[in-house]
Design a protein that fits this description.
There is one protein chain. This protein has about 260 residues and is mainly alpha-helical. It is built from twelve helices and two strands. The longest helix has 30 residues, at about 85-115. The chain is flat and about 65 Å long. About 20% of the residues are buried.
Length: about 260
């Protein structure tokens, strides 16, 4: 029975460099088509919804703002360019399409990479797609519900001089909210990155422990770059990011135990 089962398993077929390029072209084409279709759907049919989602973190009724009494005054935004609102619509639809299409994009890329892995590596990474998607959406949600409202509240109300009035450009607001959401989605891939590096022997749990101080400095710098320059906002970002680093150490330990068995 075992021999019969092995015979029924598809054998890996070696491909030439040109065939690999052709497969990659097909994968990128499928990703491009999916992204364009989602973009058109959001742009044409969900104009009001997608714009409201972007502006919701600045409204007093937003859940984070209600809990922590943030953004209680209406935020006045201005458009200073003739094509400003049109470009805002395009940008919001594009980022929305990218976020929605993310699982499909990762699935397509994984389908391209998977045949090159050994059977042992495939078994170890069989849930990798779902883990990448989970951490990405967790990062986006954390940024949207925590970083965005806190950042908007701080920056919109910051006063360097009483003689200066804030005239906030709507494109600046949109870029800030969408930018931090995408950035957090990518940064939340840290545990998976550590898993990958530990699996191929580049890093170890001992190395990660030894370089904790360096990691703390790096995470603090990253927190300062993607958040307003106040201690509370930086701590709100630093704590979960450092938690991801510690979680990565436990992942590296588990991989080392598996390799030792």
């Amino acid at each position: 029975m075992a021999a019969r089962k092995r015979a029924e398993e598809p054998e890996d077929v070696e491909m030439t460099f040109g065939e690999h390029l052709d497969e990659l072209r097909k994968v990128l084409m499928h990703i491009g088509i999916a992204f364009i279709l989602l973009f058109l759907v959001l742009f044409i049919f969900f104009k009001g919804d997608i714009i409201n989602i972007v502006f919701y973190p600045s409204e007093s009724g937003f859940i984070t703002n209600r809990l922590f009494s943030l953004n209680q005054d209406p935020l006045e935004l201005y458009n200073t360019k003739i094509a400003g609102q049109f470009m805002l619509h395009i940008k919001a639809s594009a980022v929305g399409a990218l976020i929605i299409a993310f699982p499909y994009i990762i699935g397509q890329l994984w389908g391209f990479v998977r045949p090159a892995l050994s059977k042992k590596a495939r078994r170890r990474t069989r849930l990798i797609v779902w883990k990448i998607v989970f951490w990405f959406f967790l990062g986006v949600a954390f940024s949207y519900f925590v970083i965005a409202p806190i950042g908007v509240n701080f920056l919109a109300n910051y006063v360097a001089s009483e003689s200066i009035g804030n005239l906030i450009d709507v494109s600046s607001y949109v870029s800030t909210v969408l930018g931090v959401c995408l950035a957090a989605g990518l940064v939340f891939q840290l545990p998976l990155l550590i898993r990958l590096l530990a699996s191929i022997g580049i890093v170890s749990s001992d190395w990660l422990k030894k370089n904790r101080k360096i990691a703390i400095v790096v995470i603090l710098v990253m927190s300062a770059l993607i958040t307003p320059p106040d201690v509370i906002s930086q701590l709100l970002i630093f704590v979960p990011f450092y938690g991801l680093y510690e979680y990565g150490i436990s992942i590296a330990k588990n991989i080392e135990k598996q390799n030792a068995d």
